[in-house]
Amino acid sequence: MEELIKETQVSTENKELQEDIQKEEQLKQKEEEIKYWKELALRYAAELENFKKAFKREKEEYYKFALETVFKELLPSIDNLERALKAFEQSENKEALKEGVELTLRFIIQTLEKFGLKQFIPSIGEPFEPYLHEALSTEEHPEIPDGGITKVYQKGYKLHDRIIRPALVCVCASKKEIKEETPQEEEENIIENE
């Protein structure tokens, strides 16, 4: 019986020892897994940081050179203006200078239109719209209803569908709506509508 008890004790001790060994192996295995996942997480964190830096660099480069194409397209206009000035110095032909400047202006406008810039000139009598127009002054006008445009001082510009500069206008208002203001009617600044 004592032998049976001793065998049972030895068997129990062996089982406990085996269980301890198994637990230690499982613990080592779990520690290895944890180490693996930590290293993987650190690698991915480093990759993410490198990606962020590269993206930031590319974004800065993009903004730095985004207008390069536009500027390259406008350089011939600068050259044409310089040639026109040189030609004017040599011949003092005002008509030739005027033609050269007009051609250059048309070329600049066409170039900017390639990139989505469009100019707009409000029509006389057109209703004032704060999104498209900026009122510089008001005046009475017998033929234009209140809130209608009476003069255009400066063209407006859109870049695709966004207004980047509203047209500067004078708006018709009845006598009682007109506030005291200084007349800003400089005839050379008023755009003639065709």
Automatic annotation (TrEMBL):
Keywords, in A-Z order: Chaperone, Cytoplasm, Stress response
Cellular localisation: Cytoplasm
Signal peptide extent: none
Gene Ontology biological process terms from the UniProt entry: protein folding
Primary localization: cytoplasm
MF term (GO), any: unfolded protein binding
InterPro entries to which the protein is assigned, alphabetical: GrpE (IPR000740), GrpE_CC (IPR013805), GrpE_head (IPR009012)
SUPFAM superfamilies per UniProt: Coiled-coil domain of nucleotide exchange factor GrpE, Head domain of nucleotide exchange factor GrpE
Any Pfam family: GrpE
GO CC annotations on file: cytoplasm
Residues covered by region (Disordered): 1-21
Protein purpose: Participates actively in the response to hyperosmotic and heat shock by preventing the aggregation of stress-denatured proteins, in association with DnaK and GrpE. It is the nucleotide exchange factor for DnaK and may function as a thermosensor. Unfolded proteins bind initially to DnaJ; upon interaction with the DnaJ-bound protein, DnaK hydrolyzes its bound ATP, resulting in the formation of a stable complex. GrpE releases ADP from DnaK; ATP binding to DnaK triggers the release of the substrate protein, thus completing the reaction cycle.
Family indicated by similarity: Belongs to the GrpE family.
Oligomer status and interactors: Homodimer.
UniProt-recorded name of the protein: Protein GrpE
